[in-house]
Design a protein that fits this description.
globular; homodimer; 77% helix; DNA-binding; mainly alpha
Chain lengths: 195, 195
DNA sequence: ACATTCGTCTACCATTTGGTAGAGAACCGT
DNA sequence: ACGGTTCTCTACCAAATGGTAGACGAATGT
C-alpha cells in the first residue's frame, strides 16, 4: 500500500481536478482516503500547502511524460507533436484531474499558481523554440509560435477535460470512442499545423 | 440603473465564471452588487436558483449572438465559421465568465447542468448538421462532424477563458494583442477545417 | 529499559456558509 | 386615508470549513 502521504496526494489530485479546489473540503479528502482530517494537516500543514504539493506533483508528472515522448520521437515535427499528444492523452483522459488542475491555476491564490507556472515555463519555452525553428525551416505553417502553442494546449486540454462538451454531441466514453477521439484530435492538429 | 435582479445576475455571471461557482459565496455577490444578502435570496430563493438563472441567461446571450452572426454571414462555410468566432470572441474575452460558465457545468449539481445542455442542444445540432453538409459537399475537410464541433469549441473556449495559458507564453492583453490572438485563432481553425 | 520521535487520532474552536423569520419602507389600487 | 403588495433590510441559525491543542500507541535509537 502506498504511503499515507501519497494516498492523500492522489485523492486530492483527483478531487481538485474534477470538482475544483474551492469545492473540495479537507473533510472530503480525508474521508476519501479513509483517515482523520488531522492526518491530512499533519502531512500538509494547511490546505494551501496541499494544493501546492498537488500542483507540483502534477507538473512533474506531465513534464516526465512529455520529456520521454519527445526524446523517443522522430525528427519530423508533426510526428513529434503527435507523439506528445499521444503521451499526454492517455493520462489526461483517464485522469482529467491532471490537466484540469492546470486549468484551475488562474483561480488559485497567486502563490501556488506562480510556482506551477515557474515549473512549466522551461517546457513551454522549449516547445515555442521548437515551433519557431520548424516554421523557419518551412516544416510547419508559419504563424506566431507562442500563440500556436497556446492554441494547441487549449485544444488538447479542452477536449480532455470537458466531458460535457463531448456529451452534448452524443459522444460516449469507451475504448473505441476514446481512440476515435484521439485520432480526430491528431488529424485536427495536423491540419492546423501543416504548412 | 438596471434593476436589482439584473445587477445581481450580472455580478453573479462574472464572479461564477471567473472564480467558479463553489468559490463564490452569496455574501460576496451581495457585496459586489451593494445590497444585502437577503435581497439576493429574495430574487433567487436559493443559490442553486441563482446559478440556474445565470446559466440560462448566458446560454441565451450566446444563442442570440451566434444566431445573428450566422444569419449575416455568406454561404462559404469557412467564412461562416469565422463570422461566428468573431461574434463570440469579443464578448468571450471581455467576459471570460460567459464561456467559463459553460465550462463549469460539468461540476454543477446535475439539475442546473441538464437545463443548460437542453438550451444549447439545438444550437449544437444545427452546427453539426452544417458541418456534415459542408463536408459532404467537399468544402470542409472530411471528419467526424460531432468531434470536430467539440474540437472547435474546446479551442475557442480554452483560449478565451485561460489567461494563464497565454501568460506563460508571454502574451499580454491589449487591443493589438487581442486582435492578433483572434487572427491567429481564425487562421488556426481555417487550416484545421479546410479540405 | 527508557526517552524520543513519528503517525494518527479525538476534542474543540472561530469563521463562513446558505438559508429562515420577520420588520419596515415605498408604492400601489381603491 | 388605507389595506395590500413589492422590495429591502436587520437579526438570527445550524451546518460545514480550515485549523489548533494535545492525547495515545507504536517504532526507534541509545
Amino acid at each position: 500500500m502506498a504511503s499515507t502521504r501519497d494516498r492523500i496526494l492522489d485523492a486530492a489530485t483527483d478531487l481538485f481536478g474534477t470538482r475544483g479546489v474551492d469545492a473540495v473540503s479537507l473533510d472530503v479528502i480525508a474521508a476519501e482516503v479513509g483517515v482523520a482530517k488531522q492526518t491530512l494537516l499533519y502531512w500538509f500543514p494547511s490546505k494551501d500547502d496541499l494544493v501546492r504539493a498537488v500542483l507540483v506533483a502534477a507538473a512533474h508528472e506531465l513534464s516526465v511524460v512529455i520529456d520521454a515522448a519527445v526524446r523517443a520521437a522522430t525528427d519530423d515535427p508533426l510526428d513529434r507533436i503527435e507523439a506528445v499528444i499521444r503521451a499526454v492523452f492517455r493520462p489526461a483522459v483517464r485522469r482529467p484531474a491532471l490537466l484540469g488542475l492546470i486549468r484551475e491555476v488562474s483561480r488559485l491564490p497567486s502563490a501556488a499558481g506562480e510556482r506551477l507556472i515557474a515549473d512549466l515555463t522551461p517546457l513551454v519555452d522549449r516547445a515555442v523554440a521548437f515551433l519557431q525553428h520548424e516554421m523557419d525551416a518551412g516544416r510547419l505553417r508559419r504563424a506566431d509560435p507562442r500563440l500556436v502553442a497556446s492554441l494547441c494546449y487549449a485544444t488538447v486540454t479542452g477536449i480532455a477535460t470537458e466531458p460535457e462538451a463531448l456529451r452534448v454531441v452524443g459522444w460516449q466514453p469507451s475504448a473505441a470512442g476514446l481512440r476515435r477521439l484521439r485520432n480526430e484530435l491528431l488529424a485536427f492538429l495536423r491540419a492546423a499545423l501543416a504548412p
